[in-house]
Amino acid sequence: MDFSDVNYLTAEQTRIENFLQPGDFLITRLSGSLEYVGNCAVVPSALSRAMQYPDRIFCAKLSTLVNQTYVSYCFEARPLRRRLEEAAKSTAGHQRISISEVLPFSFPLPPVDEQEEIVKSVEHRTSIASHIGTSLQRAFESASALRQSILEKAFRGELVPQDPNDEPASVLLERIRAERVAAADAVKPARSRKPRVKTGAANKP
C-alpha cells in the first residue's frame, strides 16, 4: 500500500462509510491487468490521516478467528488465483471481479496460532528467495562485465604473452581478407558464349 499516492476529494464527495480503518482487508476488484485483480492488502494499525478507498477496491472486515496476513497469502495461492482469473470478466479494457464471485471462495482455516506460524514460515522463505534473487542478479551483472572485459582483452591480445615477431592483428585480418578475395576471384566460372543463330529468308522448295 502506497499512502503517498493519493487524490483529494471535496466535502461533497466524502463518504464517511468509505473511510479506511486499521485492520481493513482490501481486495482489488478492477484493474487493467488480470494479474492485479484479487490482490490483497491489510490496512496498517496506524494511519496518519483519514483516507477513503476507491471503488476499484473491496473492503472487508475479517473475523477475529483469522490472521489477516494469512488470508492475503491464501489469495496468492495458485488454486485460488486460478479461480479468480477464471471468474474475472473483461469490460472496456479492464478485468474485474464481483463480490458475489469472491464470497464463495474457500481456503484452509487452521487455528490462529497455526496461521501465525504459517505466516512466519512464508515470510522467512520469501526473504530467502528475495536474497537469492538479489545474489543471482549481482552474479549475472558481474559475469556480463567479466565477459566484456575478456573480449576486450582478447581483441587487444592481452590474454597470453605476445611474441614481438608476430604481426599485428590488424595486419593479419587484412591479409586474411585479401586471401579470401583472391580465392573467390580464382573460382569464378568463365562466361560461356551463346552461339549466334543466322536468320534469313526460308529456302523455297
| Integer-rounded radius of gyration | 36 Å
3D shape: elongated
Query: What fold name stands as the CATH topology of the largest domain?
Result: Adenine-n6-DNA-methyltransferase TaqI, Chain A, domain 2
Instruction: Look at the structure and give the mean pLDDT.
Output: 80
Residues in helix, %: 40-55%
Distance between the termini: 106 Å
User: Based on the structure, what is the oligomeric state of the protein chains?
Assistant: single chain
Integer tally of domains: 2
Count of beta strands: 6
Q: Give, in spatial order, the strands making up the sheet with the most strands.
A: 3-1-4
Task: Please write the CATH class name of the largest domain.
Answer: Alpha Beta
CATH superfamily of the largest domain: DNA methylase specificity domains
Largest sheet properties: 3 strands, antiparallel
CATH architecture of the largest domain: Alpha-Beta Complex
Structural class: mainly alpha
Structure annotation, total helices: 5
The amount of beta strand, in percent, is 5-15%
Order of helices and strands: EEEEHHEEHHH
Low-pLDDT segments: none
